[in-house]
Amino acid sequence: MNEFMQKVGPSLQKAVQGDDSSGEKQEPVGPKPDDATMKTADAVVSTVTGRRHLSHEGKEKGGPIVHYAFGALMGATYGAIAEGIPQATVGFGTAFGAALFAGADLVAVPALNLSGSPGDTPVSSLTTPFAAHLVYGAVTEAVRRLVRAFL
Q: Number of folded domains in the chain?
């Protein structure tokens, strides 16, 4: 997902939103605001250790750990479900990716106050994350099939 977001995401976003820029790219000033994974890492560390809060640098390190751990957990869950319910693999895992995007990004993350409401977000800005989840679903299915071939 990360590779897709970095390499394909900007082009996809421009295509969806229309590129009316003059080629100049303005970078935001200062540190990026905390995303949902950074906020989760901070909450986990403060809950488990009793520390108050992580530094911004600590959140930047913890965010990807949270993201990969969640992705691994969801991938394992998908694999277990697919073993019992083969219909779960419909669309070579893309239905799973779409459901994960809807359930996590559009419902759970806002419900846990880790992001704003999806209604406040332009639909066009959801294109790249949605597509990245479709890629995640397809790769998860490919890995599942590869593992099954060796078992």
A: 1
Burial class (CB in 10 A: 0-12, 13-18, 19+), 11: exposed
What is the distance between the alpha carbons of residues 36 and 73, in angstroms, rounded to a whole number? 17
Residue 41 resides in a domain: no
| pTM recorded for the entire structure | 0.84
**Which string of b and e fits 65-80 if b means at least 16 CB within 10 Å?**
ebbeeeeeebbeebbe
DSSP-derived 3-state class of residue 28: coil
pLDDT digit string, tens, across residues 31-47: 778 999 999 999 999 99
- Separation CA 47–CA 122 (nearest Å): 33
Structural domain of 98: 68-150
The Cα 63–Cα 56 span in angstroms is 10
Q: Residue 36 domain-assigned?
A: no
